Amino acid sequence: MDDKNMAVNLRNDDLSEETKTLISSLPSDKDSTGINVFLSYWRRSLEDPNHVLFMRFEEMKAEPHEQIKRLAEFLDSPFTKEEEESGLVDEIIDLCSLRNLSSLEINKTGKLCEGRDNKTFFRKGEVGDWKNYLTPEMENKIDMIIQEKLQNSGLKF
């Protein structure tokens, strides 16, 4: 049994089917396609910041107003002073919140065309919550892969 499958079986009874599927799709040491795609977007955002915007969930959670304004500016639709003062940024943050999106009927009961429930895309929306779904061994493996693949990239987690 390889390391990836061994890690998945450590707490298999505690994991939902979606989590098991997600974990089994994690890159092995030999297959880092997902990380390479992620890094290519990061690098491209540095090379061409007018055409590629790289946003991190942690930053969006820590400073939502600044990140929404940054996104609007990137889309050549910056907020006017009046829009900001009227609370439009707050309204957008509320409408786009995981609390709001997860409460929409389509996201409670809808399915993707391949049959996956829309609700599987919503958890708590908290930074670091992923740790509640992984064993320490899984976490260590992910940390090692990320450290190896992201070294010298300038991208920090």
UniProtKB/TrEMBL annotation:
Keyword line: Transferase
Domain of life: Eukaryota
EC number: 2.8.2.-
Stored Pfam families: Sulfotransfer_1
UniProt entry tagged with the keyword Isomerase: no
GO molecular function: sulfotransferase activity
Domain Sulfotransferase, chain residue ranges per copy: 39-154
Entry's family note: Belongs to the sulfotransferase 1 family.
Protein name: Sulfotransferase
Native source organism of the sequence: Arabidopsis thaliana
High-level lineage: Eukaryota, Viridiplantae, Streptophyta, Embryophyta, Tracheophyta
